[in-house]
Amino acid sequence: RDFNERCAQCSEVNWGLTDGGRFYCRSCHNVTERTREVVNTDFITNSRVQTISKGLKKQGKNDGGCEWYICEGFQLVLKKQVEALQALGVCPQMKDEILCNFWRCYLQKSKQAYCKRPAGETVKALSVCESSTDVDSDPERPSLLHLLSLSESEGDLQTDCSFASSVSKVSESTSVYSGSVDGSLYLMKNQKEKLRMTMPMTLSFCYLALLWVREPITLSELLRFVVEGHIPYMNVFQHFPEKMKLCGLDLKIFCVESWPVYEEVFNKMHELAAFLDLPRFPDITENCFLHPDMLCMKYLMEANLPDELHNWTCRVVKKIGIGEVDFLTLMPGNKSTRKVKYDVLAAAVIVVVLKLLFLLDDHYEWLLSEFAEERNKNNTEGGPYFEFKKWYEVVKHSLDVEQKKLDEEKAKYLWRCEKPLFYSVKNKSKVLKRRQMVVNLQNQFGKLSGSVQRAEKPNPSSFQLSWSEENTDGSCFHGHSLKGVLQEKCGLLTTMNPDYWLCTVKLCNEKLCGHLAHYREVEFPQSYHFVLGLFSFLLRIQPSYIHDEVCMIEHRLFNKKLCKKLKYNSVLRK
Amino acid sequence: SSNEHKLNFKKSKEACLSYIQDALLQKQWKRAAEFLTCYVESLEKDYSREHIGPSEMIWRIGTEILWHHSQSRMKEFNCFMEQMKTLGVKRYLKVCLEHVFHLLCNGQIDEAYQNLSLAESWRFGEQTAIQDKEIKLIQAYRGLLDYCSWSKQKKILLQHGEDGFEGLAVEQEMHNYFRKAAVNLKEIIKIPGVWDVFVKCYVDLLEFYGEHNEARQVLNEYAYNSKFPANPNAHVYLYQFLKRQGESKKSLISALKILHDIVPSHELMIDFNTMLQKSKKRKKRQLGLEVIFAALDYAGWKENAKAWSCLARQVKQIVISEKHLDWIKQEWNARKDWWPDFHFSRYLAKRNWQENKSLSCEKALVAGILLGKDCKYFKYVSHQGCKARLKRFRMLKKFVTRHNPVYLRISG
Q1: Which residues 388-417 of chain A have a CB within 8 Å of chain B?
Q2: Nearest C-alpha of chain A: how many angstroms from B346?
C-alpha cells in the first residue's frame, strides 16, 4: 500500500500482494522481486545499505537458499493449515478472504509489514547461508543462551545447552545462527505489546477465522484434528520450500515439541482478536452449531444419553441466559463479557442436568437405577426406562477401551520427521548420521513388530464414540425414557430428585488464580468424577476446566438462593 | 500449573518406555519391538543430563528383543550390535563384551574370539585409560578362550598319546595357548573381584605344568585376601586343591572351617563332618557335631539321607560311649522348639517311610534319642519297620529302647 512505483510492464500503480509477500501488478499480473520490506524507503540509512546488498545476494551462495523472514514462514504455515481445513469441508472463503485478511491485519498491527519501519530497528542478524564474517563485534549483542532462554517455546534445555556449547566453541564473535534473516531478532525483543507469533497462535488464527464464519467445528475438535494429523502443525516446516533454509534459532520458533493446549490457544485467540481491533463477530444464534442447544444435542448423542435430556439442557440454558446472542457472540476487546468456551459450556450444561436429575452423590443415582431396572423387568411395553447403572457400564467399557487406545497412541507418537534439523552447519553431519541410524533401527524393529501395521490415519470424524439404535444388545440409550426419574407436579414435569449439591459455595476470583474453582478428585463423588471424565475425554481437556464451567452455571442457576444464603451468613457474622 | 499435563516429547517417550517395560516383563517381544520402533527417535534428542540416556536404553532393550524374538536371526543381532558400538564411545567396550557373551551363548566361539581381539586393540584417546577395567576383562575372556583351546589340545594329546610328531606339534600348540592364557588370567585375578571361572582355569593350567606353589599362592590369595569380596567358592577351590595335593587333614579342616562359617548349608559339610568325626581331637569332634546339626537346619537338607546318617552315626557313638552327652544337649537346646515340627512330624514319618526307608531309619534313630522312644516319629517308623520284618529296624528299636534314659538326661 505504500508502494508507489509504476509497474515495469504496464506503468500502472495498482499493486497487490502474492502469498509469498511479493508485490504484483493487478493490471498485468507482473510479479516483482521486491518484497514489502524493500518497498519502504523510509528506512534509516543503515538498512538502506542492507536492502541493496540483500538484493544482490538474493540467490544465496552456498546451498541455494534465499533470505526469508519469520513471518513468511508463519504465513506458509497458516496457508497449509487453512488448506487442510478446506479439505475437511470448511467454506472456501476462509482462505482468501478471512484468514488472509486477519493475517495481513496482524502483520500491519505488529509492524512487520504494510507499514513504515519504525526508526531504530535494523535487522542485525545474519543468515547462516551468507556465512559472512564481517560481524560487528557488538558488546551489547545478547549471548546465545540469553536468547534461547527468552523464547517461550518449549524445546528442552538439554538440547539448548548442547547447542549453546557447540556454537560457543566455534567463535566468540560468530553471529547468532538462524536460517531466517530475523530469527534472533524475533526471539530477542520483548514483543509482549506486539503479540509475537508462535506456533500455537497459528491455531488461534485458524479458530478465529472458523468462528467468524461460524463453522461447525469447536476448538476442542480443531485441536483434536491437529493431534490426529488432519491439520498440519507438528512438522509443518518440512513443507517449506527448499530454498527456505531452516536452522539455528528458527528451530526454536517453528519446531514445537508439545501439543497445544486448549487454554493457551483460546486465550491467545482472544488476545489476538483484541489486538487486531476486530469488530463484533457474526452473531451466534439458536440455529448456529456453536449454540449450546445444538452442541448439547451433539454431546448427548455422543455420550449415549437419552434424547429426552435435551429438553432439560434447553431449559437450563434458557434459565441462566447463556443462549442469548449477546452472551455467545464474541466482542473483541470487551473485558466485561465472559469469554465463552462453547464446547466446554455445553458439556458443563449436560453435567448440571445430570446432577439435577440424578443428583450424582454415589447413592441416589443407583437407587433410581434400581427402580428403573425393576420396572423394565416387569414391563417391556412402551420402551425401556433409562437405567443409570446400565448406561454407566456400557459407556465406561467403551471409554476405557478408547482411553487405552489413546494412551498407546500417545506413547507411539512419532515426533520427528524426515527433514533434518540442525542448529548449526557444524553439527549437520552428526544430525544426518543420527537420523540414518534412527531410520535403520526403525526398519529393523518395525519388521519384528509382527503383523501390526501402523494404521492409516483414520478419517476425521466429528464423533469419537458412536452408538447405534440398531444394536439389539440394548447398548444405545438415545431412545430411553426418563419417566423413571421425573414426576408431574402442578402440570409441570419436574425431577424426582429434590436435592442438589453445589460444587463450590464460593467461586474463586478468576483474575487472581486463573480458575473459578479448584477440582480435586477426592473431594467429589465418583459418579461426578466419571461424568467429568467422560467429557474430558471427548473434548480432550482436563476435567478441571469442565468443573469450572459447571461451577459457573450452578452459580447462575442458584443465584438467588446463594445470595440469600450469603446475606444470611454475613448477617450472622455481624 | 496448567502446563503440567501438556503432552510433550519427553512425556510421550517416558510413556513409550513404560509400555516397552511391560511388554518385556510379559515376554511379548513383538509388542516390545513395536514400541521400541517408536522410541528410537529419542536418539535425535540430547539427554546428556539424564542418568541413563536413550542410546543405552535402546542397546539394552534391543538386545533383549533380538535375543528372544522368534523371527530374529544372529545376523541381524550382530548387525545391531555393531550399530550400538558406534553409538557411544564411553560404552564401546561394554557393548563389545556383551556381544561376545551372546556369541558364546550361541556357540560362535571363533567369532567371539575375533571380537575380543578387535576390542582389545581399540584405542580412543583418554577413553582407553578410563575404560581400563573393561580392557582387562576383555583380555581375561580372551585368556579364557585360549584356555578352552588349550583344553581341547590336551584332550587330543591324552587320546593319541605323546609319541611321534603329532604329539610334539600338539604339545607345542598347547604351550602356546598356555602362555597366552596364563598372562591374561594372571592379570585379572590380581584385581579384587569374583573371578571363579578365571581362577579355576588358571589353577588347572598351573597344576598341569607342575606349578603347584604358584597355584597354592593364587588360591590362598583368592580365599584369604580381605580385599576380595567374601566368596564361598574360593574356599571350595582351595579345599579341592589341597585334597588333590594330598595335604594333611589339618589344612583341609582349616580350609573348610571358614566355609562352614560362611555357608553352613554347603554340600561339603558332609565331608567336613566325616573328617571331624574321625579326628582324635575332642574339639574337632565337637565341631563335627555342630557342623552336621547346622547343615540340617536348612530345608534343602531335610531329605538328605547321607547327612542324617552322619548325624545318626555320631549321636550313636556318643550315646554308646556315654561321654560328651553335653555336646548333644547343647546342640539340641537351640533346636528343641522347632526341630520336632520341622523334621519329626507324623506326616514326615509317613512320607519318609514311604519314599526312603534308609532315610527314615537314620532319622528315627536321631528322633528316638533326642525325643525319646515315645515320640511320634520313632514310634511310627519303628512300628512300620518291625512290621515289615526289616532287621535294621529291629536293631534300631532295640538300641533306642535300651538307651532311653539318655533322652531323659538330654531333655532335662
Answers
A1: 407-408, 410-416
A2: 54
